[in-house]
Design a protein that fits this description.
Length: about 300
């Protein structure tokens, strides 16, 4: 596993960039017996990231310490990054002292998989520091036990994801995207968003009114001409979530009026993103929106 974003040092410490993702396409295709939903989604890693530093010394006793800068988050097993460290020890059959430091830059509960990405970074860093006791497939299935987006966050790039989100197929991305991400300080809980989705579509049985055209999106992505399939950028959560998020609704409209060829909500929201033809157009739009907006481009694949 080669990663250009890793800095390893002699005192067994690794710092990884934990990238955010956006969903260029997100459809919920069925309810499952286990309470989860079947998804068809295109996830795309973007350059905005948290920094996750992990220091590990293997030993007899298990000691997990978590520090977070930039946000007020739980520092115990309520935090997914903490649970990732615990799960890694258990699966690898190892113990020791691990110190995790997260410099949080991504908004929380925003549809960007920030928490999942931090957990993914912890798993990858601990595996590296412990001398790779787990194979890549073992790490990915361990990630899936922690959260539906964790496997994607471990691999990154652009992937067509199915199942809960953990079944991935890489999608060619012919050209980098120029993105403005906007977040109006609204929060959405993922389980509540899925419950609201069930209500909205009347506890659907596979007969959800699908609005998307994923094949057009796949082709346009591969050709590096996503703007030719702008109307294929789609999120089935939008009509469920946006009516109760006025800031996100206004930001989405503003992105379009500032020249985005497509604007959409990411994940279960409420972050919204706009896609622009050039980096300079994206920068102008972000400047016009102000501190709620940030410019991003496509991020590299992690694994
Ligand atoms: O997997 P994760 O912990 O991120 O999921 C959080 C919640 O989102 C789940 O408990 C479930 O309510 C909902 N969810 C779902 N279907 C998915 C992913 C998440 O219903 N594919």
């Amino acid at each position: 596993m080669v990663n250009m974003n890793i800095q390893a040092s002699a005192d067994a410490q690794v710092t990884r960039a934990a990238y955010a993702k956006i969903n260029l396409y997100l459809d919920v295709t069925a309810c499952r017996e286990d309470g989860f939903h079947e998804l068809l989604t295109v996830m795309h890693s973007i350059s905005l990231h948290d920094d996750v530093t992990v220091r590990l010394s293997l030993g007899a006793a298990r000691d997990i310490r978590l520090q977070v800068r930039g946000a007020r988050l739980p520092l115990d097993s309520k935090n997914l990054a903490y649970r990732a460290a615990d799960a890694f020890f258990a699966k690898a059959g190892k113990n020791g002292a691990v110190q995790i430091h997260i410099h949080k830059r991504l908004p929380i509960a925003a549809g960007l998989a920030g928490g999942s990405s931090d957990a993914a970074a912890v798993l990858l860093a601990m595996n590296e520091l412990a001398g790779y006791p787990l194979r890549q497939d073992e790490l990915l299935s361990l990630g899936a036990t922690l959260g539906s987006d964790v496997p994607f966050c471990m691999v990154g790039g652009t992937q067509i994801c199915r199942g809960r989100g953990e079944e991935m197929r890489p999608l060619a991305c012919g050209a980098p995207l120029y993105i403005v991400l906007a977040n109006g300080r609204e929060w959405v809980s993922t389980p509540r968003a899925f419950a609201a989705m069930d209500d909205y579509y009347h506890r659907f049985d596979g007969s959800v009114p699908h609005g998307g055209r994923p094949e057009r999106l796949y082709r346009a992505m591969a050709d590096g001409r996503l703007h030719t399939a702008a109307d294929a950028v789609y999120n089935a959560f939008e009509p469920v979530i946006l009516p109760s998020c006025p800031a996100a609704t206004a930001l989405r409209a503003q992105l379009l009026s500032l020249g985005a060829y497509a604007a959409c909500m990411s994940g279960s929201g409420p972050s919204v993103f706009g896609l622009f033809h050039t980096l300079s157009q994206a920068r102008h739009a972000a400047a016009a929106i102000g501190p709620q907006a940030r410019v991003a481009t496509s991020a590299p694949t992690s694994l």
